[in-house]
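Possible regression after last week's pipeline update?

I re-ran a chain I had predicted before the update to compare outputs. Posting the input and the new output here so someone can diff against the archived version. Not blocking, just want to make sure nothing changed silently.
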Amino acid sequence: MRKIFFLFAAALLAGGGAQAQDKVASAAPGVTYGKSIDAQGAVALSDLEKQIGESTSYNGKIEGKVVEVCKKKGCFMKLERSNGEAVMVKFTDYGFFMPQNIVGKTVVVEGTANVTETSVERLRHYAEDAGKSKEEIEKIKTPKKDIVIVADGVVVVK
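New output (post-update):
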């Protein structure tokens, strides 16, 4: 009887976790995720490198256009740069997720941007989560030094 109870409880917990992405609000202007923030005082992503300067870190608000989101559960997104590359945005302690329809929207994220080096293993993991093909994933052979943002909150601007 005890085993049945524990199996039932485990099934309920697993089912609730699977439905978590279903409860993520659809992206629309004014919708926030994580910490409630506004767009005032945000720097454009194109100006972020100047803001970081030699300190390799920036704490504040950053505005950009979403070009990619994790297809598995919305656990990361990428913002568009003018050079065609993208900047990775993760969320503090995986405390919140992004909906799939946020791609193409302009957002403001609040948090910390750091210049970091991402390992080949981690880059391949992100590519897999983004739904890239096996061939694309296998082409990743070198680590990448880039800006990574860890956001406490996100607000959809437009």
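Follow-up from reviewer: compared with the archived run. The mean pLDDT is 84. Marking as no regression found.
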